[in-house]
Specification:
two-stranded parallel ribbon, 297 residues, 4-stranded antiparallel sheet, single chain, signal, alpha+beta
Length: 297
Amino acid sequence: MWKTFILIFAIPITWSFLGEIDQKILAYFVCACKVLTSRALQKSELDKAFTKLLEMNKLIEKKYRQEKISPNLHLCLHICECAFDYEPLSSFWCFSFERMNGILGSYKNSKRNIETELIKIMIENSFLDYFLTNCDDNILNTTLDIIKPRKSAGSLAALDDFTSDEYQNFLRLSLIEDESAYGTERFSRLLMKLCKETCLPNYILDLLVEFYDSLYEENFVPIYSITVPNNDIVVNYKIIQYGRLKIRADIYGSVQAARHEKSSYILARFVQEDGSIDIYSGQVQFYFEHTIYLKNS
């Protein structure tokens, strides 16, 4: 938008309001911008742009005195040099902080403890760059063995030694209606305080019943709908409510835990009937622990 204004509209709109020296200042600036914003540059054109910017600075100093020569006016004299070194301005960031934001934004992170994770990534990268540039091959190979990623822990460790054939065999077994390919283990998590015992409202209880129906393929009914004894599994109101959930080293917050509210924002995936997946953003209100008694338990 600024480029369009400077190159097309600046001179026709402002020309009649400017004095002779200011008209020359604007003309030099527009001429230099026209050269520097083009996608194909030649050294002769860069020299021409540098001359225009230099003359512009001289006129500003002549009319408005030296104290009006700001750091940006001085730095603009180095733009041509940058374009000569790094190609047209459209192919790289002109401001260092914008370039750094682009680099940091390309790093993968959990979207929770972003600052800490980015610092760790930069430290690891600088550590690797040092060894790649300052060590011979023998020392480098030994060093890379030391700093290579550690093996997974818990249930994830079982995947480290799997081959592609073993994965395929497991997938085949999972399609057989036999319990030999299935198993369970305790969920590695810790529900953290704030906690209290409370009751779910009816509309949430209905959603919980629908979830249990889909998960266990049994008949569940909310407790408020029971009028006569039956064989359905009753889902009661009572829950233990928590403010935070810890899974390994990560802590997930909620609205109920003000200090961890930053990590309460999530993207939830919902599988539709046609198999497509829709993603919705939301905020965790709280975590809860609920107990039901199945028929075979």
